[in-house]
Amino acid sequence: MNKSEKAVLGACRITGMEVWDADYFDSEVPAHITLRDDLTGAFQFGLVQGDIDARVGGVGGVVRVEFSWSGADENDPMSGRGWLEVTGDQAQRRIFIYLGDDSAFTAVRAG
Fold first, then answer.
1. 60, 79, 86, 93 — which has fewest CB within 10 A?
2. Tens of pLDDT along the chain (111 residues)?
3. Where exactly are the structural domains of the chain?
């Protein structure tokens, strides 16, 4: 595992999203995204959840993770893609739902 991959591994708590309002986060399961050592992971926000398959790269000192995902929203099958760029403690992220919405989101490292 290289240094770029290590920089993006672990669990993050999703703290906000561009498209969905705060009421969407009133759920028993906190909004989160996790990336494991094997570059698979999972996320959930509201009733949307998915499994992640990621790849890590980088350009100009910025680590970029691109991922595809499949999952569900209220038991309706969904899929999409997303990305995140990490520079030090800061990250920019975006998630896309196939044939649906897309949203920037903010997250902080959990733990």
1. 60
2. 566 567 778 888 888 888 765 555 556 778 889 999 999 999 998 888 999 999 988 777 778 899 999 999 888 999 999 998 876 666 778 999 998 888 888 888 876
3. 3-109
